[in-house]
Every structure is written in C-alpha cells, then in structure tokens.
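for the writeup, i need someone to sanity check this before i put it in the appendix. the sequnce is what the collaborator sent (i think, or maybe the updated version? ugh). structure was predicted straight from it, no edits. if anything looks off just tell me and ill rerun, i have time this weekend
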Amino acid sequence: MMKALSGWITAALLSLASSAHAAEPTALATQLLDRLDAGQYAAAEADFSPQMKAAVPAEKLKAVWESLPAQMGPAGPRGAAVTSEADGFRIVVIPLHYANGGLQARIVLDQDDKVAGFLVQPAAAAPAPPPAADASVIEQDFSVPASGSASAPLPGTLALPKGKGPFPAIVLVHGSGPQDRDETIGPNRPFLDIARGLAAQGIAVLRYEKRSHARPQDFKGSFSVDDETTNDAVAAVSALAGNANIDPRHVYLLGHSQGGLLAGRIAKAANGKLAGLVLLAAPARPILDLLAEQNRYMLGLDGTISAEDQAQLTALDAAIANVRGNPEARLMDVPGRFWQQLEAVDPIADARDSTLPVLVLQGGRDFQVIDTDWQLWNKGLQGERYRFRHYPALNHLGIAGEGKGSLEEYARPGHVDPALINDIALWIKAQR
C-alpha cells in the first residue's frame, strides 16, 4: 500500500434514517479537499464526525495527504464529482489527478453534514467492454443463489467458450474486502483477465459480486467468515455444476489471496462437487500477522520508519491484540469474531484434507503474500496431487512489473500474465 493509504481513513458507517440536509454534498466534499490542499488540517478535522476525529486526527490527516504528491507526482485538476446515497448517508466520489496516475477521494457525509468516512484509493476503471463479436468467448448473466443466512442472490457473469459443451469450469473466489466480480483494483481487473483467458482455452469461468460489495447493508453487525465468503462460494459451485453447459465432474475453484486461504474450507463445505483447487497468492499464515507485516513493509518503502510511522504500527499492533482477545472489538470496521474465525483456519491442512488436486501459484514481487508463505505451501503440500508455479516478475494481482512491489503499481493499468493463465488451463485439462 502507498504510505499515504496505509491504515486508511474509514470510520464505522452507522445505519441512520434519511433526513433533510443543510448543505449540498458536493460542496461539502469539495470544501474538505480544498482545506487539505491549503494545509488547513485542523479545519478539515473540524468537519469530521466524532468517530472520524478519533480515527483520523489532524496530524495523521496531514501526514497522509502530504505524502500523496511525493508518490504520485504533482497534483492536477480534480475530476467531476459523482454523488449517491445509501442508508441516510451521502457519498461523494471525486477523481484526483496526479502526474503519475489517478486516485479518487470517497467522502461519506452523515445526516449532520459531518464527514463520517474518507477513503483515498486508486481511481475506478471504466466499465469493461463486452467480448468482441468475433471473439472465441461469450458472456452470460449468472445469478448465484442466496444461501446460509443471506437474503438475496448475487449477480455474476459466466464466461463460456464458443462451441458445444459441456465444458470444464472454474469459480473465482475473491480476496479480502468488498470486491466486484472482476476484482477491480484501480484500472486493473484480474478476474476479468482470468475469466476471458481461460474461456478462450475451452474452460468456462464464473465470477460474481462478493456479498460485502453487492450488499454492504448485510454486514453492519457481527458476521462470520462463512457469511462473507464460504456460503456464497459453495452456492456458486453448486449452481455452476447444475448448468447445462458445464461438465459437473470437472468444476474447479480458484481462490485469490483470502479466497485461497479459504479454498480448502470451501471444498469441504461443497461436499464433493469440486474436482480441484487453484490457490493464487494464498496466505499460509495467520491473516493478522500478514496485516501487521504488510503495514510495516509499506511504511518502510522509503527506507525509514519515522516516529509517526512507528506510532501507527504500535496502534495497529494494539488493535490486532484487541480483536484477537475480544470478539466484540472491531478492526477496520470488521468484528473480532470474524478475525478470530479467519485466524483459526489452517489453510494448508484444509487443502490436504480436501483430498483434491491443488495448483499453487505465487508471484515473486508480491509484498502482501510473500516468499515465507510460498515456502510453507511447498513444505506442507507434498505429493503427486500438488503442483507449484512461481513467477518472479508478478505482483499480488498476477501482473508483471519491476522493482519492489507497492500499491502504487496497482494504480497503473496492466493485465494478468498470459503464462499464469495458460498454466491454469493446462492444469485443468490434465485433470480430465
């Protein structure tokens, strides 16, 4: 993560009834950015809700905002604001143009016209064009049925090879956090690349909106790992296996990052419906250990850990210890119960216990899931049913780059390495 975005700037969004607001939201959001640009950090903090003031005091706001040009180059003009409303909050998204790339500011305003959430993130990509008419791939809408405690299905897309099926197929399971069906990060769409790349080689691919992205209103209180990921992945597998275009004996699952950590758990819950697992950049260690490690790496990318940086790391360590000991505590607005369940997962044992063939894929420039995890997978999965592929130039998204990995490169457009996609295709075909 860019140092500027480390640990970044969200507050709990409490569910409030809609009411009349005194000020136009774009004006309030623009006022906040104007104050930041002018160095008026105390005045900007005065616009915050009590929760935001506690989470992001003026001195932290100053450190974050002033580090953006150092990483992204000089600032240019802002783009046009886009507004929306959810659960009584007004949401304003404003593009931020810099010499070396684009970001966007997402500003959430409560019923008192206070800033209840503030996030700076890579700029959203434009909508992906459909496959060309002469492409070897077609795409269809696909609904993943509601399961477990979920009250609504999830929208998805099924990429199919042209021609006569039934086809082998694979379900793509997201990494952590709210993710769309393409796993869009800035201008990059790794799941779109994988889906169309595999479909062009004769393998159907289902990708779908993660529930925390499609229905964030379902995640305001306590929720489990299964509520967030496992139940929907199992429902997707079952629905795909029942599709007339799909060979139900050859349905696979690709888990990226946290999705890879949970792949063995998903396989157990799928109860025999999966034929194999692909683990892409999958953690092998407790997820909260990785969170602390990632933040230290990102804050130290410039070669130093300042006193302020160390204070952030110390605060993060304390927050991690708190959620490890208290299921009612929250970290990154996620309940301790969720973190404790996630930490209890043993991904290597779960993959072994699945008795399924497993393909493990790892990028050598990945700073989020690192060589330590790669070595643990190699040590823990030994035998003929396991295959491993390592790509020295690839990052956490499976995209090639140079130098030390950072979140800054996620803001630059790229595509998942064709060699990685080809290795997945060859492995699936070898299982038939």
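Residues 307-325 form the longest helix (19 residues). Residues 236 and 309 are 42 Å apart (CA to CA).
thx in advance!!
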